[in-house]
Amino acid sequence: MAKQYIMTVLATNRTGILAALTNALDELGGNTLDVSQAVIRQFFTMIVAAEFPANRDPEVIVDHIRAVCRPFGAEIAIKDPAEDAASEQQEDRTAWQSYVLTVAGRDRPGVLRFIAHRLAQKGIDLVDLQGMRREDDHSFLTSMELIVPPGIDALQFRQELVQEFQADGITVAFQHRRVLAALAHPEPMGFNVVSTQNLQE
Amino acid sequence: MEHRTGFFSSLQQLRQLPLDVRTITLGINVADCHDRSPNSMCEALYQRIVTKAGRFAAVCGEVSSLLGVPILQRRLCVTPIDRVAQGFCIDDLVSVARTLDGAAANLHIDRIGGFAADVQHGIGASARNLISCLPIALSQTERVRAAVHVGTTECGVNLEAISLLAHALQAAAEATSHRNGDAAAKLAILANDATGHPHLTGACLGDGWGDLVIHVGVGAAAIIRHAIEQRLITNPNSTLPELSAEIQTAVFQATRTAELVGREIAGRLGADFGSIDVTLAPTLRPNDSVVDLLPLMGIERVGAPGTATALVLILNAIRAGSAFASSAAGAYSRIMLSVLEDSSLAAATQSGTLTFDQLCMAANAGACGLDLICVAGDTDVETLAAIIADQVSFAVVNRRPCAVRLIPVPGKQAGDGVSYSGMKNDAVILPIRGTGLAREFIKRGGRLPPAR
User: Fold this and answer.
1) I need a labelling partner for B410 at 20 to 30 A (CA). Which of A67, B234, B258, B443 fits?
2) Who wins on pLDDT, B73 or B208?
3) Strand ordering across the sheet containing A43-52
4) Could you tell me the residue ranges of all domains in chain A?
5) What's the CATH number of domain A3-79, 3.50.50.60, 3.30.70.260, 3.40.190.170, 3.40.720.10?
6) Quick check: helix, strand or coil at residue B84?
7) HEC states along A52-121?
8) Which of B68, B252, B263 sits opposite A158 (nearest CB)?
9) How many CB atoms lie within 10 A of CB A141?
10) Model pLDDT for residues B38-58, shown as the tens digit of each residue
11) Which residues 326-355 in chain B show a CB within 8 A of chain A?
């Protein structure tokens, strides 16, 4: 039975990190399953789910990858999903809806905190997050993809955020994935498969 | 600002658009509610409307909450009543109007259209009765909107009908003189209504739409303004083609959103999805008027030379954007210039740069008629008819639809302010030059030949 590990890598952005890492995986007989990366302010981070042969010693895997990444000054964290099983079991989410929340304006502390609290309160799942701040005028833009349980009124949720942020000149947009799909795809509606689905596939 | 993850880079383009849907109209076929007995017919009408539209408000709320898109107004419309209520006397037609009003009230819907007749070829006895009942029907109901179709490019202009309607307008205004003649605002006079174009006010279902249909109205003013403002921040010296492209994109996005909302509502109600009307119309939000767009583009006061060019630019961009967005988008998008509903426009008329004549001409630059314009209460009925006839003639020769809504405000003169309950702002009575000079012409009457 294959063994899975989840790894994160944090390093100064340089060419060659992914090459070295995938070399190491290959040498270990491993296979990449899922991967995502982000580059922020010249730092690179990546999260990888990889699968290894069952007979591979976990310590060997960890040591080898660390050794390969050491020249890059990279920090590696490795977790075993079997040990750290997610505490929240995946409930049935067929009725959940996918939204995108975009907040932008003049930066001030506490924006993300307020939003994160509200999301936690309402049981909304944050599946993707991007944020950026300009140095010239200190304006920011944050976008989040959210999976929202049924029973949450999108207009009302937006209104709560607007009330909190409007006075500071921060704008809020909260739109269903289907609206964004309708805007982004040139095909007429009805032929646009994404716009008829609830959740991103 | 750049994001390096693909999905969100497209969000950069979206820039927090103020997306909403201006109107959702549920069209209900009531043609089979006809009955010889007026009471039975009214009962059947009431039941049909209340049954078919029972869930309308709730479904609109659900979809609005789900998609995060506000819906500003819900409306109903029915098969043109003249077709359904043939052979009835004036009193019975008033009862029909009251029935429509009551049904809409029951459903918490503010507007019900379809109290309408087609008289572009000639006026039948029933149509004549309907026109005659309008002053009472419109003054005694709140939600009913009426429309009479008086001319087409192929048939010509029914001047006799226009004269009758001018009398009806005056009588309706008089009957509601304590409310500044607001009954007159509920009557629209239409030309080239061949599509049963459901969004021209007084919306009627027309023929061929099926038993239950959802139409959507888009008011793109806010989103266009947002787009132009953003573009001008990036490049204050944007050329007109660039601004036109921004408008086109903004309208595309607004139309798509409206279509998504409309189709979802239609699906949940078991209705067909009909058409999308893109009208640049003001809303209750401040600065949501086309008039506020023109200064952004560089025309400092509406009505100044260049206004028509700007309006045509906007209109063409709207039509291009909406056409690409959806094949359900109506071909006759228009720009609503309503002194009554548009505070910026009212202010522009007060400054004197924008005159009644220019509003008449703006009809050809996208206004498609005169919409909710207040005139002096003592304007003679032939002048009212002449104003309407002019607009209808423009429409006939230019092969486009038009709607005219004029309000002769009893007891007020040009320059007076007038306010109506439910309207945010005061309108101004516009002076009309040359009143009383077409009496003989209008009195000759008849039906004017079509355009070739």
Assistant:
1) B443
2) B73
3) A31-40, A43-52, A3-12, A75-79
4) 3-79, 97-196
5) 3.30.70.260
6) helix
7) ECCCCCHHHHHHHHHHHHHHHCCEEEEECCCCCCCCCCCCCCCCCEEEEEEEEEECCCCHHHHHHHHHHH
8) B68
9) 22
10) 999 999 999 999 999 999 999
11) 326-327
Instruction: Assign 3-class secondary structure to A102-143.
Output: EEEEECCCCHHHHHHHHHHHHCCEEEEEEEEECCCCCEEEEE
Closest residue to A38, CB basis, from B5, B256, B326: B5
For the purposes of burial, counting CB atoms within 10 Å of the CB of B366, is it exposed (0-12), middle (13-18) or buried (19 or more)?
A: buried
- A143 Cβ under 8 Å from any chain B Cβ: yes
Q: How far apart, in Å, do the first and last CA atoms of chain A sit?
A: 28
Q: How many CB pairs under 8 A join A and B?
A: 81
| Interacting residues of A93 by C-beta distance below 8 A, sequence separation 6+ | A147, A199
| CB contact at 8 A, B246 and B227 | yes
Long-range contacts of B263-266 (CB under 8 A, 24+ apart): B263/A189, B263/A190, B264/B63, B264/B66, B264/B67, B265/B24, B265/B59, B265/B60, B265/B63, B265/B214, B266/B213, B266/B214
Pick the more confident residue, B13 or A14: A14
Contacting A residues, span 21-50, partner chain B, CB-CB under 8 Å:
38-39
> What is the CATH code for A97-196?
3.30.70.260
Give whole-number Cα distances, A23 to A18, A26, A76, A79, in Å: 8, 5, 16, 20
Put residue B114 in one of left, alpha, beta given phi > 0 → left and psi -120 to 50 → alpha. Answer: left
DSSP 8-state class, residue B377: T
Cβ–Cβ gap B14/A38 under 8 Å: no
Residues from chain A that touch B64, judged by Cβ atoms under 8 A, are: 155
Radius of gyration of chain B (CA): 21
Question: Which residue type sits at B420?
Answer: Y
* Amino acid identity for residue B107 in this structure: L
Are the C-beta atoms of B188 and B404 separated by less than 8 Å?
A: yes
Find out whether B185 and B403 touch, Cβ atoms under 8 Å.
no
Same fold, A3-79 and A97-196: yes
Q: Half-sphere exposure of B378 toward its Cβ, with a 13 Å CA cutoff?
A: 4
The whole-angstrom separation of Cα A8 and Cα A49 is 9
Nearest CB to A171: which of B16, B253, B326? B16
Residue A200 has pLDDT above 50, yes or no: no
What ipTM was assigned to the predicted interfaces of this complex?
Answer: 0.81
Amino acid at B85: A
Rg (C-alpha) for chain A, rounded Å, is 21
Query: Hey, is B164 helix, strand or coil?
Result: helix
B193 pLDDT band (50/70/90 cuts)?
confident
Compare all CA atoms of chain B with the CA of A104 and give the residue at the minimum distance: B16
Of the candidates B51, B143, B61, B60, the residue with the CA atom closest to the CA atom of residue B104: B143
Taking Cα atoms as reference points, which of B318, B334, B333 lies closest to residue B251? B318
Contact B247, B317 (CB under 8 A): yes
Q: Report the first-to-last Cα separation within chain B, whole angstroms.
A: 56
Chain segment B284-335, per-residue pLDDT in tens: 677 778 888 899 999 988 888 999 999 999 999 999 999 999 998 888 888 8
User: How many CB atoms neighbour CB B2 within 10 A?
Assistant: 7
Both structure tokens of A152: 């949450």
